[in-house]
Each structure stands twice: as C-alpha cells, then as structure tokens.
C-alpha cells in the first residue's frame, strides 16, 4: 500500500492548514496517511522528532512518500540521513523547507534542532524524487532554499 507521512513544522499541528486537505485527498486515493503529532512542537528537540518517525515507521520502502512543512522538512531530511543505505523511499516534498542557514533571521529556540549540517549525499541516495515548494513572501524561510535543494538533491 502506498503510504504518505506528513510532518508538520515548529508550532504546528498534524492537520493544520493545507496538511488536513492533503491527508483527505490522499486517503480518497486509498493511500495510507500518517500525520504524527510531533513531540513538543513549541520547544522541538530533533532527537525526539526522529524517534517519533522511527516509532511510526517500522518499515519504509519505495511506496513511502514524505511531505514536510518548515521544520518538518529538516526533520525528514535528518531522518532519511539516518536510515540504512539500502532503503529507498518513493519521494519527498519539502514545503517551506530549509537547512541550518535557511532562515531569514535566527530563531534561538531552534538552535539545538538545527545544530548539524545535512549530509546531502546520504539523503539524495534515499530517493530519486524530491520537490521543493517555497514562497517569496515567506517571512521566515529564504527563497534561496529552493536553489539549495535543487543543487543538493537534484
């Protein structure tokens, strides 16, 4: 069965904004949709978020797709970095995603969460399908992140 994992961002909720709509659309197409409530979204800890993804995803494969929003994108990328090298996923959609330098201004509460560079080669080897979506009007995330994702993930 095709599975989608939708990960909200900092201060987010699983079905907030467009994520609830997307869940419904995918479920109508008979996808299994996982929309975890990430631990402590107001004071996020990366290790807790990775552990949550590990707990809800005992098995992933080419029929597993990820959709992240904001900090959820970074969490997905770090999660993919840590899975076994022989595991491949179907694809990843990054909405308002960023790396450790991708915010328009520092957000001290996220410093620990964003303390490591992403190992782009490891992430790129986990899938051949990546899509980045961003807005020039985003107050927090630099539009240049789309170019970074294009360069690093193709």
What would the keywords be for this entry?
15% strand, single chain, 154 residues, alpha/beta, 5-stranded parallel β-sheet, 5 helices
Kindly summarize this structure in a few lines.
Helix 2 crosses helix 3. Helix 3 (71-82) links the parallel strand 3 and strand 4.
Please give the structural blueprint:
Layout lengths: L2 E5 L10 H11 L3 E3 L11 H11 L7 E6 L1 H12 L8 E5 L24 H5 L5 E4 L10 H10 L1
Parallel strand pairs: 1-2, 1-3, 3-4, 4-5
Helix pairs in contact: 2-3
The main pleated sheet reads as:
5 strands, parallel
Order of strands in the sheet with most strands? 2-1-3-4-5
Give Rg in angstroms.
14 Å
User: What class do helices, strands and sheet pairing give?
Assistant: alpha/beta
Mean pLDDT: 96
User: Percent of residues in beta strands?
Assistant: 5-15%
> N-to-C terminal Cα separation, in Å?
27 Å
Number of extended strands: 5
Described by the principal axes of the CA atoms, the overall outline is: globular
Q: Quaternary state, please?
A: single chain
Number of helices: 5
Q: Sketch the topology as an H/E string, one letter per element.
A: EHEHEHEHEH
Helix content: 25-40%
Could you characterize the architecture of this molecule?
The chain contains 5 helices and 5 strands; from the N terminus they run βαβαβαβαβα. Strand 1 (3-7), helix 1 and strand 2 form a beta-alpha-beta unit. Helix 2 crosses helix 3. The protein starts with a strand and ends with a helix. It has 154 residues and is α/β, with parallel strands linked by helices. The longest helix has 12 residues, at 71-82. It has helices spanning 18-28, 46-56, 71-82, 120-124, 144-153; strands spanning 3-7, 32-34, 64-69, 91-95, 130-133. It is globular and about 40 Å long.
